[in-house]
## 1
Amino acid sequence: MSEILKDIQEWRNVYNKIFPKGESLLFLMYNLQPTGITKSLFSLLRNLINEGYEVKLLVCVRGEKDLPSPIVPIYLYNSENEMWKMIGSNTIVIPFEQVYDRVVAYDGILSTWLATYLKYVNKKIAWLHAPYKISHVGFEAGYVREVYRHMDHLVAVSYDVKQTYLDALQIEEAHIKVIYTKLDSQIIREQSRKELFIKEGLVAVSVGRLVTEKGFERLMSVHKKLVDEGIQHELWIVGDGELKQELKNRIHDLGISQTCKLLGYHDNPYPIMNRADVIVSASFSEGLPLAMMEAMILHKPIVATNILGNREVLKANMGMLVEDNEEGLYEGMKLMLRQESLRKAYEMKLESSVPFLFEVGR
């Protein structure tokens, strides 16, 4: 208990240093597509607005599926082609001259690079969401170091992510702070009760973008193996992304169309998660697993690969960490699906825990 409260106080001190009271803030995003980064941004913006900050949001590219923002965004370009044409001609026009106390480049090196062009800002901050090697594929370390050199602060979403940047860029540890995404547990629980999913039998749910690093292909293989062994359950996958058609084809090829469902993207996934008997993360890589944190707030048993991000969130045995391969996922899911007493034990541990670090400021 005292250790967690100490961590919460440390988190609050860092938060107040990055966002001093009374200062105006400008956030930069590449786009507002339905990703965990966008959701975490909106959660942060709502908290800052509620705390009385003046906040603006500047977005590089307008997308077809942009999520509704808690504040009206200012778009720089209507398409990627328009943006790259302007960048190629070295013509970047920022549509205002208001002085902001701080700019926050929230979603990667492109928005950080754009932040270096802003003249009317006193302090510049870059947010780091994923391990260095995942976030900077194709970028030379020297170039990345030079871009981040212009930032007054770097903020990592977890201590694991922070360490990957320290190792890769050899920068001073004091230059990188850690701030977990803040989640409103009351809103999540209220939204989880807005719909009721009535379904007999066991249900495993996995939430995330349909991309390679989320490991849905191997999760489907594990599901197929468990069903073939007589462990009857359904696998629901919530999310959208570039692998949608490939995953549909895989479901067909594996012959699991009756038990594995692609449910698409949901603005409110919490009723689906609330129906789950177990939440599964088969990811190869995570910075700070937002869906897992939401599952913890809903007191759901979790099976997750033992990777950066996952193990930081599930420390103190808050969920089951398994080896980062199909066999590990298979053994973990088999145990969790077969043993109701094990699921209840994890539920009780989550229910009886003190506020999680990512619930601070409720």
Note: The radius of gyration is 21 Å.
## 2
Amino acid sequence: MIRSRRWRRHRRLAPPLALLGATFAMGAAAISLGAAGTGRAPAPVAVPPPSTATPAALGSGPHASSVGVNLAIRGIPAIGQPAFSGRLGTAGTQDASDRADYSHDPDHVKSLVTVAKPSGRTSGGAWAATSAPNAFGMALSPRGPELLRIATLHTDARCRPPQVRTTLTKPTVAGVPITAGETQVPVTGAQLGYGRVSTGLLIVRMTRVQRTTSNTAEARAEITIDGTLFGESTRIYSGRIARLVLGDVQAQCPGTASSPEPADLIVRKTVDKARVHVGGPVRYTLTAQNDGGTSMDARFEDDMTRLLRHGVYNADATASKGRLTYQRPRLTWTGHLSPGQEAKITFTITARRVGKMRNVVVWDTPSNRAITQVLPKHAK
């Protein structure tokens, strides 16, 4: 088994996330988003006039933005559905870190929406944005049953270097799993929460957006719901019912040729097995890479203090470039790395004692850990 983690030298991304931002450009429903499996009944509220819900807009200069919930509902008089628009859990920054405040709700989105443990933030320097409200549920009317459920949704975007992620798990509409692309979902009026509707067919389209350029990044999950709704004997509505953009995070940090990205050391570590018997070898591979735009003199240490409690270093470390030194219990590598250049270091340990061999690689503040379970010599 191989285990690898990647850490940055200057700054880590804000924890994911768990990430959830959203844009709803919807038609046909008041929406209740809940952590529970069924829709709850918020008190009636005055519905503001409809507006166009758009993704978070990037500024002209360095900027990061995150939107937790952006909701717009088109009114459908034929089924008694009022219009609504509003945003919740927004964050934006141009020169500092900013957390999304879900307690501030000027648009009264929380009268229709509930999210479990919501979080989101933006940060300068690395120009990163994250969003992660979990246990996401939606009903088409405040007192209606849950229609849409997403177990977790995490998004993050970072522009130095451009990186994005959109993680969305177990999305369902009316209990039917939906995937990227188009899914047809037959429904009843009871599932939608509207007494005037007998049956209907929903067309659900889901897209996971993950886009980067040399100095921008954006991530979100977009879901649109169109449908045709029938009464007892006639069609009463056909068209857009809902549009959701979830985890709308964006980052922008334009650079120029005269000011390249600073040097940035990344060290990745892998181990060739997760379990080994006493007397067996374990091979470690470390890759040091300059992920920035300028050259650097780099250095990192592999701290074997805890590793040597259960194993013996075989004094066989090699490096594809640079210089290695060993002074028990630390293996140190130093070398010059041009932009994008990497050095590969390998060494082995022989397991001598039952337990866990824990290995830690350190450069500046971050660390990278690898754990191997050591079993008795003849254990199965």
Note: The chain has one helix and 27 strands.
